[in-house]
Every structure is written in structure tokens, then in C-alpha cells.
Amino acid sequence: xxxxxxxxxxxxxxxxxxxxxxxxxxxxxxxxKRFEAVxxxxxxxxxxxxxxxxxxxxxxxxxxxxxxxxxETLNQKNAQGIAFPEALIKMGILxxxxxxxxxxxxxxxxxxxxxQGLDGLTERLINYKAKGAxxxxxxxxxxxxxxxxxxxxxxxxxEILARYAAICQEQGIVPIVEPEVLIDGDHTLARCEEVSTxxxxxxxxxxxxxxxxxxxxxxxxxxxxNGKTCTQKASIAEVADATLxxxxxxxxxxxxxINFLSGGQTSxxxxxxxxxxxxxxxxxxxxxxxxxxxLQDYCxxxxxxxxxxxxxxxAAFYKRxxxxxxxxxxxxxxxxxxxxxxxxx
Length: 345
Ligand code: 13P
Known about the structure:
It is a single chain. Helix 9 (236-250) crosses helix 10 (267-278). This protein has helices at residues 3-14, 28-37, 44-55, 71-74, 84-90, 121-130, 151-170, 189-209, 236-250, 267-278, 293-303, 310-327; strands at 20-24, 64-69, 94-98, 103-105, 113-115, 135-142, 174-181, 218-219, 257-260, 286-289. By secondary structure, the chain is an alpha/beta fold. The chain binds 1,3-dihydroxyacetonephosphate (13P). Residues 23, 139, 178, 261-263, 291-294 line the site of 1,3-dihydroxyacetonephosphate (13P).
């Protein structure tokens, strides 16, 4: 296959209406924090077992097109001794890989962070691809305060995201481009809209400058939403309207699929917002999910690190995957939250 054929093949499998992406690529530090919050102690085997629970949930492949892995998981095997990427491919799920190396402060800003990991990226991609990865993820963050995000962070993040995306495509890897405007703080929805618009616009301007082929990317943005501690809570319709307004103004129709991050919304909120966005009529892109917490929270809490809880944990994951799949088609209702979801493989 040529590089273009590889990119075409991958994006055609990721951009299927009603299917989304599971982000299971938490760094060791992050998953340890999430485990500890629900009383699970984190070692390599616990992380392997937990991720196997997610990936082997029977029937989840109806709703999940791809899984983003952390490097540790890419190199681990399932209980049958099959490497996780190979096991996923057998289930019709594409393996992806987080390739950024986390956040570092950007000098001359008010404690704003950029994402590192461009050095040696080509060599790492060659290695990940040999292990089965066909798409990648890179996350850039923007913190909202009265004076941030600065234009310096907006320009720098855009440039780095575009360089990463160009390097991925050169290797036949579809890049997930993730600009995350953080939910932390007391800002209003209007303020989130005000800063997300130039942030997303700058990303697409940089992608253009770096000659990234928009047909072969996944955009993974945050939704336009009020800050976590804001007293003015936006309605589901307000979040959907503002999110679409910003995306329509900044994201070219050549982008095949937009897969949101959940960003600290509850599982139910993330599903309801996605559903409302998809109920607004015909959109230029497929609009779906690439959630970590909103797909995993109930599963992790139910598992508690104990083998006897695995069936219930898988049922919890199946339910969130199914409801988000319905939301990606605008077919979810909140009454479904109270129905028992039967797990059908
Ligand atoms: P959340 O859905 O928990 O925000 O995670 C998505 C993700 O992959 C962050 O990079």
C-alpha cells in the first residue's frame, strides 16, 4: 500500500457514523491518579488487566472503531498471550498510540504549558507502526483565565500540532489533532467560545501552512462549555449551539470526522451534549466521541481491581459505548440511562 492508501484505509474505518474512539492512553501517572481515586493500586499488571477488561468487552466493537493506547499497553499481551494491537485488529478495532510526551511550561507566559515530544518522533512512529499502530494522538492544552490563553500559546500550540500531524502523515499514520480548552475555572460559556475560536482557527491555519492533508486527520476538540466552577450553568442546547457555531467557523468541511474529548464532563453530560450536536441536522463532518473518562469512569469504579467484578465492569463500559454510539447518530434519549442495556456481542 502507498502512504496515501494507508491513510485512506485508516480514516475510512475511523470515520464511520455511530462509531467512536476509546481513549485508553492515560500516562502511568494519570491512570495511577484515577485508580487511586477509586481505591485501586496501580502496578503494571493492574493496568494491563484493566485495559484488557475494556478491550475484550464483548460487542463493544459495534461502537468502538479505534482505541488509543499508551506505549506500555502497546507492548503488553492479553491473557491468551496475544499482543494487544494484534488482538484489537482481530476484533475489527484499530490500534492507535499517544505520541506526545506531556506538558512543559512555555517560557514568557503566565504558567501556560506546551506539549513536548517532537524530537525523535519519526523514529518512534516507525517503531509503533511496526507494532500495529495506524493512528496517533497529540494533545495541546489551553487554560482559561482573565488573561489566558495568550496569543503566544495559541500560535505555539498550533505550530506544534501541525508539525506533529505532518510527520504522522509522512509515515502513513492518521493524526488525531487535539486542541483542548480546559474546563477548569469559573469562566462562562461565552468566554470559552471567545478563546476557542482563535485557538481552533490558528490550528487550521498552521495545518494549512504545513501542508497537512485535512482529509486524513481526526479533530479531537473540547466542546464549548462553561467552566467547572462557573455559577451560570449552560443548558445542553446552549453547549450544542455554541460548539457548532465555533466548529463551523473554524473547521473546514474537508475534515472527515470530529471526535470530542470529554474533558471532565460527567459521563451523562458528555453523551447528552454529543447527542444534541448530532440532532441539529446535517453537518459537514461526522461528529462522534474519543472519550477517556466519560467512557471509562463507571467501568473503573465497578471493577475496583477485583476479578469477580469484571462482568459488571464490562457491562458498564458496554453501556457507555452503546449510548455514545447512539448519541453520535442523534438517537439517544436520557430515559435510556435508566434502562438495562443487554450486552449483545
Ligand atoms: P477525556 O475524555 O477524559 O477528556 O480524555 C480524552 C483524552 O484523550 C485526553 O487527551
